[in-house]
Give the backbone structure.
Amino acid sequence: MILQKTHKILIVGLGLLGGSYARALKKQGFSVSAITLDRKSIDFALENGIIDKGSTQVDRQMLQEADVIVFALYPHVFVDWIRQNGHLLKEGTILTDVTGVKSGLVQKIQSMLKPGVEFIAAHPMAGRELSGVENSDDSIFRGANYIVVPTEKNTFGAIELCQSLGKTLGFADVSVLPPKQHDEMIAFLSQLTHCIAVSLMCANDAANLERYTGDSFRDLTRIANINDEMWSELFLANRETLLGVMDSYRSNFDRLYRCIQNQDREEMRSMMRLSTERRKRFDKKV
Amino acid sequence: MILQKTHKILIVGLGLLGGSYARALKKQGFSVSAITLDRKSIDFALENGIIDKGSTQVDRQMLQEADVIVFALYPHVFVDWIRQNGHLLKEGTILTDVTGVKSGLVQKIQSMLKPGVEFIAAHPMAGRELSGVENSDDSIFRGANYIVVPTEKNTFGAIELCQSLGKTLGFADVSVLPPKQHDEMIAFLSQLTHCIAVSLMCANDAANLERYTGDSFRDLTRIANINDEMWSELFLANRETLLGVMDSYRSNFDRLYRCIQNQDREEMRSMMRLSTERRKRFDKKV
């Protein structure tokens, strides 16, 4: 089953990511509606042609019309939404999401749904240090990765549909990972980097640092501008795994520290060469 | 004393930075010559109009003609060069450099020079993860910071000349810091960030990580592609100061670790809010 122009898409939660999904899908000719709490977000999206229809309340007709529903909500809000409104979903609807942590969440959502409604989780590895539909921008998907995160409850058809959604949105690479492996990857690649940036930014309050900085510090701390409500929830949702990758990162940091302390230049250089070699694989292919 | 078009510039060490200096100065109409070991670098620079004259050997006539000499060499090579060739410099010549650590170096170079030859240190906060004059590019100076690093031996005239060199090269902000303060800033803003990127890259050898990554990891580890010969020398040249900033960063990282471990969401969020607030000052003004 592949996403087709006749499929009607509903976005629940019209913020930065929801809005970027809507923009990308509208440009491809899809019919897109949205449900979100904030009136201003709906008005902005309608005025700018980002959606066709919008509502600030759970609109039964929109739910009945939708073939694919994308949830772009905080994890606990997503769970609450399904608990309250899951019974209103029509049979055959495919649900997907954008949530950053999967292990606890996916099985919980799947167990709450009535038969005939399927949730296939996904994680778009794209974002901006801004929020709200006003800042949405589908060019953030270009060159980026999209991960489909199925469980044993998912059908082949829904996985395939979700993969084709990723391609339609414009992602460069669409891959598939089970929840546990997804959360391990994301702990290292995304959550740990945010921990590092926040720690670094908290470590020095000297005046005028910005007058002396170079791009390395700017690039490393870009994500230190962080949504504390969302990220603290995501960190705690992936707590054990995140603590594990923090440990392994710190043991390497400590090893480099000892090299500098002991003036062990050869060991230091071997770490740098390993790092250089590994980094080469990560350049963006745009 | 301000840099003028009649000043003849000599670059010693025509790599990425030396080449970028030469490009910027030639575009402004200066006469630029270069001394570098590698014949191919000279040939490339002459063929591409990056310099007017070049030599692979210490050319006495070039030294006699030069009003300003920019040294773009590894620190120990710079010291060796002055030891061997310092007596050939003509009275009135102003020397400057691009070296990343200053405290040990600046006083040493100044003490080796004959009367009438003045060394005013500088640190251009710009670079690329590539080397060689073939990759030089003066657009890296746009929006970037340039730090003049005088000691009590420097004259007002030489400091002023060096500031105007930074402006002429196209830097957005030119500031002045004594060597000790410079090295403290740079330990935190530049060396620590490189330590973090290298440690992070060494911490995980899972396959296919690049298929799941987002931009935060890419941006943070850009500098993990590192020249191990140069950076290991710079780390050891600033050893005590670098260990100090590594300690204060790690104590903040450990604090965040304990927040996650103890599920102390409020403390975690207060670190994130501080980090967000501080980060706002660092956006590039281009």
Observations:
- The mean pLDDT of chain A is 96.
- Residues 46 and 161 of chain A are 27 Å apart (CA to CA).
